[in-house]
Structures are given as structure tokens and as C-alpha cells.
Amino acid sequence: xxxxxxxxxxxxxxxxxxxxxxxxxxxxxxxxxxxxxxxxxxxxxxxxxxxxxxxxxxxxxxxxxxxxxxxxxxxxxxxxxxxxxxxxxxxxxxxxxxxxxxxxxxxxxxxxxxxxxxxxxxxxxxxxxxxxxxxxxxxxxxxxxxxxxxxxxxxxxxxxxxxxxxxxxxxxxxxxxxxxxxxxxxxxxxxxxxxxxxxxxxxxxxxxxxxxxxxxxxxxxxxxxxxxxxxxxxxxxxxxxxxxxxxxxxxxxxxxxxxxxxxxxxxxxxxxxxxxxxxxxxxxxxxxxxxxxxxxxxxxxxxxxxxxxxxxxxxxxxxxxxxxxxxxxxxxxxxxxxxxxxxxxxxxxxxxxxxxxxxxxxxxxxxxxxxxxxxxxxxxxxxxxxxxxxxxxxxxxxxxxxxxxxxxxxxxxxxxxxxxxxxxxxxxxxxxxxxxxxxxxxxxxxxxxxxxxxxxxxxxxxxxxxxxxxxxxxxxxxxxxxxxxxxxxxxxxxxxxxxxxxxxxxxxxxxxxxxxxxxxxxxxxxxxxxxxxxxxxxxxxxxxxxxxxxxxxxxxxxxxxxxxxxxxxxxxxxxxxxxxxxxxxxxxxxxxxxxxxxxxxxxxxxxxxxxxxxxxxxxxxxxxxxx
Length: 627
Prior knowledge:
The protein is of the alpha+beta class. The protein has a domain at 3-94. The protein contains 26 helices and 14 strands. It has helices at 77-80, 96-107, 167-179, 195-203, 244-255, 257-264, 268-281, 286-299, 303-313, 320-329, 333-346, 350-363, 367-380, 385-397, 401-414, 418-435, 438-451, 456-468, 472-488, 494-507, 511-519, 528-541, 545-560, 571-582, 585-598, 603-623, and strands spanning 3-4, 33-38, 41-46, 50-52, 55-63, 86-95, 119-123, 126-132, 137-145, 151-161, 184-186, 189-192, 218-225, 228-234. The strands form two sheets. Strands 1, 2, 3, 4, 5, 6, 13 and 14 form an eight-stranded antiparallel β-sheet that branches. A six-stranded antiparallel β-sheet has the order 7-8-9-10-12-11, with helices on both faces. It is elongated and about 120 Å long. The model is unreliable at 1-29 (pLDDT under 50).
């Protein structure tokens, strides 16, 4: 045990004021140091914690070797602090909440989307880390590995949802971002070289003491107690034995160093080759098979082979979320749902379990079953944005608008800042409009405009709501305002232009002005297909036959070049029918051929195409009857 030294001092020197007995044990003014006796030797220790970034050095003891008793202690710490001692004991403490806040800016880009401060908690033999973004969740563990000099950790049990690739790759990039230059990573093993020596050299010279030798200090303990991480080093304590889980993961890490490094660097083909080579040395290893399966799912088109490889190592229904993805890819939706439900039940990190339930909801065929899965997700992680958004959409799909608005209110409350709350309200308003709840959408768009009064999209959404509820005059005024706001910023609001054109055409009967408005919609806009279709119909209505044909041709070009969604191919059915009525069978055949490529299973398009192709063949035979 350590105890502060208390001893009587000889008479003080004349140059100094008298000091009471025992004053030699006190540190010089401003230095949190004091003399102490440790294991029969004189030493110097901290008597107050010292902060080192997010870490607190709560205990630091050095032994002064080469001294023989009796020792003159009259000079106190100032007499001995320049002697080189040996580090006997060091303890570091860190609040997990404070450590998470410190790591937040470093881990912000790991999921490639905004993330909340990381969640840290203790697990047997190590520390667990959880990252939660808008659509993705990641969790992994850092397990302590016994080492006489260095602090060594191994990354283990990486998993997540919505990541778009192997969770281990994201975990390794998170480790690189968190530790930066203070640690070296080889595969999934992380090494902090000589941490006791490094801390002593950082702390002691700054408080006026020579840095000690730390050759004998070794890791004695590492644990999480409540919300506090504690790491202790001791020169005399035996090195703690490595846990079985850490040893198992360390053995695996030695097989896949190059593959893990390739995965962290984004070189997925090289990583897959490395894991396959490791599988030859460790056949049917569950984690290696899972990593190969995750890479195959990300690559696409390899579901059957990946599922066979995973099934050799572990039962498919116990293969976690990746097994669910593979089963769904091969058409076994019942098996996929069972595997996803099992993975969610076993997951210990609540946001990760919620992310799995969100995926389970996507696999459910019935809206009621999907809603039950989303209820589970929200119950596990009420602040997970993705789960609430999906549940809001599911509730709208079954007509439960009141509960959907409750989810919308929670999303708005969870958003931070006026811009974020505006985006939530604008997004929810658009969903309400699409679901047919126009009156409720108007109220939500009004809330969006409270946060950002001059937003073009929210103004357009409110105008659409007003028009749908019979307030045409006010709706038209808002559409004109939306167009003017966009033009003032040097852009065009395609949605506002299309809606304004509809009002001009359908309510006011001004087709020429409506045509002029939809012509302003650029080809790259999401509304370009609707705009070209409306233009063609309205040109035909005013008798501009050639202009209508040209508008239909522009629409076909957008579909052919992939600049609009394939669903726009349905509009080309109208184009084909228009050209058939005009008698231009070749133009009709071209329109319908593109429409059929876009929607090959649409019976109406297929029938119209056969009609047009037959007419083209008949016309060709009439001009050249020779077989």
C-alpha cells in the first residue's frame, strides 16, 4: 500500500520562512505531487488527477531507486523530482459518455452519413462500440489481449444493418479514425506501443518532474465499471491471462491480416480472395464464410453460391442478417423472415436490433406484419430515424393517418435545428400528399414554412394541398410565388412549374401558357417525363400536331437514355397510340418498342406494340411484295 510520507524536517534555511513538521511531504506550489513510500522505497506520486484529453490519470507512482535511508526529506518533492525513477503504478480512467463525445467528430464519416455520438459499453473482456446513423447502424467490440509491454486490442463481432457492405470493413475504418496516429493496426489487431511510458512522458515533464523509466510497467487490469473505463499498469503485478474469446479472435486475426487490410481499404476482390484462402486453412469457419457471403451480397448476382458456402459453416437460419439477405435473394422469403427475426432477438445493441427489424418489415408481405416489425424497431430504438420513417410510411399505406402524424411529430421533435426540422416536415408533407391526405399535408407544410419561410418545395407542397381542398386562388398564388422564389435563386422548380401548368390548363383553360410553363422544365429534372407528356397532350389539344409529335419524341429520348425512371415508359403507350391515330406507324412502333423495353410485362404496351409492328410489316409488304 502507498502512504504519504510524514516526517519532521530540520530547521529551515534562513532564506525561507519556517515550515511546520511534515512540510517536506508536500509538493511545491502548483505541482500535484507528493512524496510517498511504496514497497519500502521512496517515491513520488500524484495527489490529484491530471486530465489528458478525454482520459484522466488518476494514479501515477514512481519509485526512486538508489536511495538509502535515512533520507533528508526537508526539500520535499523539489529535491527529488529531477531524479530518474521507475514507474511503479499507473491508472487511467475515462467516462464512457465523455469518451464517446470526444470520438464523435473522428467517427462522423465512418457510415458516410450523419451519426449521433457513439455509444460505448463494457463487455466481457473488452469494450463495445455502437454507431447509429440515419439509415445505417454499426456495432463491434474491442477485446483486450495480454501483452507484457503494449496495450493490444482485437476487433471482434462486427455487425450492423443498412451498411451496404461487410460490417468488419466499417469497424476497421472506425478504429483507424478513432485511434489515428497513436496506434498501429495490422488487420483487425490494434497496438498502442508502450502506453504507460507514453503517458508518463506526457504528464510528468509538464508538471515539473523528470519522466521515469517504464520498462517494468505492464498491463495489470482493464475493465469497465458502470460508466467508467479503468486501465491499470503495475510493475509488480502479474500479467492478466488472456480471455478465451480474445484468444480465439486473435488466432483468426493472424490468418487474415492481408485480407482485413484490403477490406478496410475498400479492395473487396482482394479481401474476398484472402478470406477464401484462409478458409482453405480453416475449413468451414463461420466468420470467414460470413465475410465472403457479405462481400458476395454487396457485389450482387452471387446469392446461390454465397448461401451454399454459408450453409456449410453454419445453419442458414442462424446466419444472421446476411443469411436473411441471401435467402431473400434466392426467393425463400419465409426462411429470410425467420433468419432476420432470429438475428434481431440475439442482437444486444438495441439500435442494431431495430435496424434488423426494419429489414424484416421490408421482407413481410402483409402490411400488418410489417407494422408489427416496425413497432418492435421503434420500441427498441425510439430515436432511430429510419425506423420511425418506415413506420410512418407503413401507417399511411394502411390509412392510419393519426398515428402517422404522431410519428411525424416525434421525428420533428428529434431533429436538431430549424433546417433539420423543416426537412422533416417537408418530407412528411410530401408523403401525405402522395398518400392522398391533402388536408393533413397542408398543415405539415405550414409547419415546414415556419422554419424556412422561403423554401420552394414546401411552398409548392402547400399550394398543392390548397388546390386539392378547393382553395384554388390561394393555391395559384403560392405556386406563382414558388416559381418566383426559384427564379430569384437562378434555378427552376420543376415541381412548381408542372403544378402551375396544370392549374393553368385544367382550371383556367389557358393551354398555351400551360405549354410554355412545362417547356421550362429541364430534361434532367425528376418531373421531365410528366412535363413532356403534358406538353404533347396539350399541343395536340390546340391543334399543334407536329409539336405534339416532337414532344413525344423528346419523351422517348429521355427514356432511351435513362435520364428518367423506367416507369415513365408507360407514357410512351400514349405516344404510340397518338402516332397510330395520325397514321405514322413507324414512329408509333419506335415509341412502343422503347416502352416495351422499359416495361416488358405490361400487357397493354405489348398488345399495342404487336399492332404497330403488324402495321409496319404490312406497309413494308405493300411497298415491296417480293419475299
